[in-house]
Amino acid sequence: MPQAIPAVRTPLTAEFTEPDATLRHRLSVHVVLFDLDGTLVESDTAIHRHTVRWAHRHALDPGHVLRVSQGRRDIDFIHELVPHADADAELAWFDQLSVTDSAGIEPTAGARDLLAALPAGSWAVVTSATRPVADSRLAAAGLPAPEVLVCAGDVADGKPSPQGYLAAARRFGVDPAGCLVIEDSDVGLLAARAAGMPALAVAGPRTPVHGQRITGLEALSVRRGS
C-alpha cells in the first residue's frame, strides 16, 4: 500500500474567475486534485478515435458508446455494454490502443504553468484511466508525473463514486474539505461532491452542469500561503 505523504503543509490559496465575471474568488485549501483527460490533458480526439473503433468492433452505435463512456472507467462501460464479453481482454485491448496511439495528445492551455507553480507534494491526479494509459498521456503531453496518482485499478468503484478522491486525500493525510478538485465532467464533479470536496468545473466540449465554472486552467492561480 502506498505510504501517506506527511500532512504538515503550508495552506494554499486558490484564486479563480468564473466565466463572464470580474470578481476573483478565493479558496484556502491544502492540496489540489486534478482529473486527467480534458482537465490537464487534451485527449478528446484520441479517446473519440479509440472509442469509435471499439464500438465498431462490437457493432455498437458509436454515439451511444461515447455518451455512456463519458468520464467513466473503461471497465465500467465495458461491463455495461458488452456484459458477456471477456472484460479483462477488452480492457487490455483498450489499453494497448491508448498507449500506442497518442496522436493528438497535448497539455490543456495553462496546465504546464499551473503545475510548475504548485509546491511539490501539493497536487495529485485522480483519473478514470488505467495506470499505463495515465502514464502514457502525461508523458505524451510533456507534463510531470504527480507524487500521488489514483487510477482506475486503485478503487473498487469509479467516478461518480468518491473513492478515488477520498483515496488521494488519505494519501496526503488531509481532510477532504481541504482538497480542491478540478474536473471537466459531471461524473467527476459528482464524485467530488460526494467526497465533500470543493470543485471547479473546467468549461469545455462537455460543459459540466455541476460546480463553479472556470473557462480553463489559465483562469486559476494557486499560491502558497493564506
Automatic annotation (TrEMBL):
<dbReference type="InterPro" id="IPR006439">
    <property type="entry name" value="HAD-SF_hydro_IA"/>
</dbReference>
<dbReference type="InterPro" id="IPR023198">
    <property type="entry name" value="PGP-like_dom2"/>
</dbReference>
<keyword id="KW-0378">Hydrolase</keyword>
<dbReference type="InterPro" id="IPR051806">
    <property type="entry name" value="HAD-like_SPP"/>
</dbReference>
<dbReference type="GO" id="GO:0008967">
    <property type="term" value="F:phosphoglycolate phosphatase activity"/>
</dbReference>
<dbReference type="InterPro" id="IPR036412">
    <property type="entry name" value="HAD-like_sf"/>
</dbReference>
<dbReference type="InterPro" id="IPR023214">
    <property type="entry name" value="HAD_sf"/>
</dbReference>
<dbReference type="Pfam" id="PF00702">
    <property type="entry name" value="Hydrolase"/>
</dbReference>
<protein>
    <submittedName>
        <fullName>Phosphoglycolate phosphatase</fullName>
        <ecNumber>3.1.3.18</ecNumber>
    </submittedName>
</protein>
<dbReference type="GO" id="GO:0050308">
    <property type="term" value="F:sugar-phosphatase activity"/>
</dbReference>
